[in-house]
């Protein structure tokens, strides 16, 4: 599981956060009939090996007009346009209904919510779009169901702070999560984000949220720990100390694994920089100190390439 997936799940582990995300994502007509006070997570992941390549999943039950339904929060791993997404959500729903059948559990409708925070614009289509030159008389046989698509790029910071969410912790986490691929914007606004979260420094639960966000920033951006710590220090001295100890812990973990996180960032940046020059993987591999096969894997993974490098190193030790 990559750093983005881990942080996504940590966001929704906080009591009330899943309800806030569901409330901000679903159409009003559905929300009016949904009793969100009954929203309850079904523990565990229900993805098969094939689907786990694409999603992180969190599955919830909820009462809808007195009947039970399920809401699946699916975090999309990839950051490029994926025209097969509807096919994958159908596979996911079918796997849930098959699980219910095998365990003799009542089958329920499932509302899939796909959360995407990549850099590239994505307009989701229908399953029938995957078929070239589909004759109109054949189209009715294609199961063109829908899913809720949440592209965080469409949410402005002001909307996150003022309209979409109520809980300060959710506003803070989603601002970090939304802007993680925009380091300059994150750098410019990080003081504002932590200032918004000032109340979280006052208790252990809040500090845990702060720590998770700091760790996420350190693992996925090039922002200098000293800068992050000093910036947080203008809001909370306790936060500055937390940032410094988190940075030190991550550096020690990197040493124990044989290489620090910064080394992986450098390799990843080298790969992406040389790929823009249209060099062959064999030539990029020489510059990055990796095998051509590994370079191909990193390029195929796109924004997940850094997570792939770090994860591979972790499994070796």
UniProtKB/TrEMBL annotation:
Q: Which domain of life is it from?
A: Bacteria
The residue ranges of the Transposase (putative) YhgA-like domain are 3-205
Which InterPro entries does the record cross-reference, listed alphabetically? Rpn/YhgA-like_nuclease, RpnA, Transposase_31
Gene Ontology biological process terms from the UniProt entry: DNA recombination
In Swiss-Prot or TrEMBL terms, this protein is called: Putative transposase/invertase (TIGR01784 family)
What's one GO MF term for it?
double-stranded DNA endonuclease activity
Q: What is the lineage of its organism?
A: Bacteria, Pseudomonadati, Thermodesulfobacteriota, Desulfobacteria, Desulfobacterales
Record-linked Pfam families: Transposase_31
Q: Which family does it belong to?
A: Belongs to the Rpn/YhgA-like nuclease family.
